User: Fold these one by one.
Assistant:
Number 1:
Amino acid sequence: MTSLNEQINEIKTHLLVAESELNELVAGKKVSAGRVRKSLQQIKKLSHLLRKSIVDFTKSLPTKKRALSPKTTEEPTEPVAPVATKPVDLMIKLPKKKSPKKEKKTL
């Protein structure tokens, strides 16, 4: 397997070839159109190979482990009694309102 730098250099050379052929195409040389497209296709293939190589290289790198945080010793606290959140007056249930009955229409 070639190194990542070698793969980048190979892509650069194909890009230079594509650029020179594109200049010829702009100058009016129709034959160079196929060569430009061929170089671009080769760049595409090499780019995909480079992406795969980068993923493989990244997976082969060692992973860093997190440092263990020092455990703090807390003094035990006394349990706290629950605090009332609603006043007693608000805890009285109000009667539900009855919905008005609909009258049936007869023909």
Number 2:
Amino acid sequence: MQKLGKNSGPRNRKSNNTSLLSEHSVEESPKPKTFRVDPCLIMDDIIEKLQLLDYVPRFCKTRGHVPVSRTYFAIKQEQSEPTDTKVQYMIELCYWLMSLGFEDSLR
């Protein structure tokens, strides 16, 4: 029976296999650049679309809400309204938007 030396164990075999794989591996392509859109620009677009739906007279005035600013949902503000109030506003706004579609389907 032949004694195995320090360099002939399973650990050495793994490192040899790894080095063989790395020699023949394909170079990885660089990660694609991700573009981050400014949340305020998105909110500007949302507010513009809400204006087209007569958001102020049909939602804000009938429900006693103040129209949202371009930073209301986009930027976390410690001193403004609590998060729960913003979530409630978003829920009511979404409910109103869905009700518009429901009203149109009844016509």
